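Researcher: I'd like a structural prediction for the single chain below. Treat it as a standalone chain; there are no partners to consider.
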Amino acid sequence: MAALKLVVTPPAVDVGHAALIEDLVALLKRLDESFDMAGTHLFQSVARIQNITSALTEVTGMFDGGVGVEAVNGLRMAAESLRNVRSLVQGRSHEIATMHEAARALRTSAAEVMRCLQVLDIYGMNVKITASGHPQFMEFADAMRGKLHQGDRELIGLDHMLGGLLESLREMGQNDRLLDRECAKVFPQVPDALMREAGNLQQHQLRLGNLAKTIANLAQAIQTELHAAIQAIQIGDSVRQRLEHVLASLRLAEAKRQDGSMTGAAAAPLLRVHAALFEAAITDYARDRAELAASLSRLQSQCKNLQGPSDHQASEGDGDMLGRIESSVAEAHLMLRQLDRANSEGMATLDLILQTVDEVTERAEAITRLRLDVQHMAINIGLSCRTAQLIGRPVMVIANEIRTYSERLDAIADAIQRTQNNLSAPCHRLQSQSQDNGAASGELLARFLSTIGDCNEKGRQAMAVVDAESDQLGSSLALAIDALEEAGMLEASMHSLSKALQDAGADAQPVGGDSAVLLQAMLDDLARSYTMADERLIHNQALVAGLTGIALAPEIAPGAEDDDEDDGLF
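Model: Treating it as a single chain, here is the predicted structure.
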């Protein structure tokens, strides 16, 4: 009889979850690395777009009522002033002629007064001789001679000042004639060209300003979407947090298995919940990551529009336009220099004229006083002649001559007073014209040209910043997209882990007794880590019979107030 063989069934191997835990830890590490990299590049993109908007804001400020507009307006004012140069010079020539004639008339009158004083001085000597040393007549003659000498000194000073004035007026007229000849060579083409280029420059700045505004609006739209992307990048934190909840619960189950509190198979109901949570997290993650990647791809395409128009238009016409303006200014430079020189010398001459007018006024008053003194002396000598019997008659003849010349002094003084108006009135008119012609200054025009050049240079620099930062922005977004693609490649590993959890929990059976109590405690501990309502709902749906679900937050009717004290966990 054949011997019977005893077949002994080997005990089932209690397979743990250490390998699953290890794979999940590795997955979370790669997930963190991918999203950290994507987040870093997104934050760099935000800095790039901020640099772009700042540069464009400066440009729009310059060309929208800023220094660029002021310079264009100043250029137009200068061109308008240049158009008026010839009429200004011709008007000034007329005023100079009037003042020149007045100065010559004053000099002639001063010479006549001097001749009168010389004659009167001779008459004074005749009085002394005729009076034969009579004390009374001697005193009159000496007093008159002293006043005559004082008047003579004042007239010499006046004549010297009038001579300098005539020379200044001659030089001023010569400069104006030279300026008029120079103006004739470039008039009206140069001021017209300057005015035309000012209009062209305004249109150019308007185009640059509108271009900057267009790009700025696009940049602001990109900036808004970037901030939304920064918020959306939190999907990495969200899925990591949900998977960490599963990891923590798996580690607890493995610890229970290792201390003998629970077998690996007994944890199947728990793993069933893990698998449901894991699969839901993967589904949300795949959807949100794909949407974020698509959003970043759209942003990357929009970034190309930031530099597309600027490459074509930013520097369009800058060099040619500035060259034409500089050429117009160069052609007008001699005219402007002569005008500035004429204005400077004119102002100096005007100061001299004003001083001369004041001096003439004082000397006219002195002549008036001298005339009265001479008249009084003639009257006094005549009265004294009545008491001087022997010498009275011949001295009276001299006194009558003195009275005649005093009347001539009176007429000359009146003529001087009238001539003063022909000197002072044109002087004040020229002074007003010189002040109003400040916009035609070559220095001021050069400053406007420099400002225009600075504005255009800053505009080019801003567009260069836009180009450079747009390139860097596109690169940063490309790197962020690459990082998200790497994160997307993790979905396969996630699905593999999810499948492993599903297989481990596939044999889950209804539970009871001590096993149910232990599982319930572990599930309740897991539920306390939830931060999303979906996690709680999935938790309850995955439970097997014998286990109690967790309380869900009540649905809030539209318009109902939130309960701030309800944390939504239980």
